Amino acid sequence: MAKGKTAALICTASIVLLLVIGFIVVGMAEISDYVRETGTSAPSDTDGTTAAPPESTSPATESETAAATEPVTEPVTTEPVTEPPLNVEIRVMLPDRSLALVTGEESEILFEILTNAADQMLLSASSTNDAVVTAEFTASDAEVHEIKLKAVAVGECAVEIYYDAELLASVAITVSDPPETSAPKDLPAADFHNEIDPSKPMLAMTFDDGPGNYTDELLDILAENGARATFMVVGTRIAKHEDTIKRIVAEGHEIGIHTWDHTKLTTLSYDEIVEEVDSVRRYIRKLTGVTPRIMRPPYGSTNDDVKKASVNEGFLIVRWNVDPEDWKTRNAETNYNEVMSTAKDGCIILCHDIHKETVESMKRIIPDLIAKGYQLVTVSELLEYSSTERVPGEIINKR
Ligand SMILES: [Zn+2]
């Protein structure tokens, strides 16, 4: 009996012991898990190798997503192709970008494009009201472009110049009916033209380098004496004196071309020579409706290219055979004596209307030449009555 109890006790004790051991093992395992879950986070933070990867992959995925969205925004960056390049500049050759026309009149707007992308230019021009003015733009490779205008009816509108869809410039156009009053003031010169007597001596006074501040005074002197002259004008000087240019033509004088900017033509290429002449010709035609047909080369300098341009472009090269050197002496008395002592029948006299002393000397020269029996005519009139027929390419009046 005691032996059985003892065995039962041992058995019970063993079970209790096993239970205790079991609890201890399970407890240790749980403690171990707890330590692993909480305690291990600290050493892991100090371990760069485990902490770093998530940080380094994060920017990588960001840049990948940014790159992935770029193609969506990329078409936007192609926009500048349809916009004008930064260095497109336009210069309309009208001082105030306005033009007055009369009904039925045809005219031109000249403008210059300064750009490094001329071959990409898609220029166009149109009138804001075709009922007032029709505008026709002619594409050109040249730097100077033309828009041909026709005044259709009285009114106002604008001619707009575009590069692609971008408005570059606008020119205000006013169209009115032609004035009813004829200009009797201009008649004496026209009458004088009809009275040219080919059997009597004649000569041509020519004035270079203008128009200038004294040109109108010279026109007054010529008008008072019923005399005419020829003005060899420089293109860059026209804009400041457009009214004077119009007056020169209205009073029966002749306009010749003395190039756009007084460049010595023999230093230029053939194309540049043509442009030096043609730019002035277009400007004068636009202003006056008259197309100049004579050209005086600056310094009298010519070569084969100048002669070739003369033939191809149909203008005469006109020099001179009396040169009082007024630009050098700058003295009215000296100029008077030089001209009066060297003038002869059929001669072309070279002077410069940009000098005050020269214009001063004309107050005596012009009436005194007429008193000596000379008819003062334009160069074209002189050539018309000359016994020799003049042709383009020929240099008229070599020094
Ligand atoms: Zn000159």
Write up this protein.
With 399 residues, the chain is of the alpha/beta class. It has two domains: 89-176, Immunoglobulin-like; 184-396, TIM Barrel. Helix content is 42%, strand content 22%. It is built from twelve helices and 16 strands. It has helices spanning 2-39, 41-46, 48-77, 187-194, 215-224, 242-250, 270-288, 304-313, 326-329, 332-342, 356-371, 379-384, and strands spanning 89-92, 98-102, 106-114, 123-127, 133-138, 144-151, 155-163, 166-176, 202-208, 230-233, 254-257, 294-295, 316-318, 348-352, 375-377, 395-396. Strands 9, 10, 11, 14 and 15 form a five-stranded parallel β-sheet that branches. A four-stranded antiparallel β-sheet has the order 1-3-6-5, covered by helices on one side. It has a four-stranded mixed β-sheet with strand order 2-8-7-4, with no helix packed on it. Strand 5 and strand 6 form a beta hairpin. Helix 5 runs parallel beside helix 11 (356-371), helix 7 (270-288) packs across helix 8 and helix 10 (332-342) packs parallel to helix 11. The protein is globular and about 65 Å long. Residues 26-71 and 181-192 have low confidence and may be disordered. The structure holds zinc ion. Residues 208-209, 258, 262, 298 line the site of zinc ion.
Number of DSSP helices?
12
Strand content: 15-25%
**Helix-strand topology string:** HHHEEEEEEEEHEHEHEHEHEHHEHEHE
| CATH class categorisation of the largest domain | Alpha Beta
CATH topology of the largest domain: TIM Barrel
Radius of gyration from the alpha-carbon trace, in angstroms: 46 Å
| Number of domain units | 2
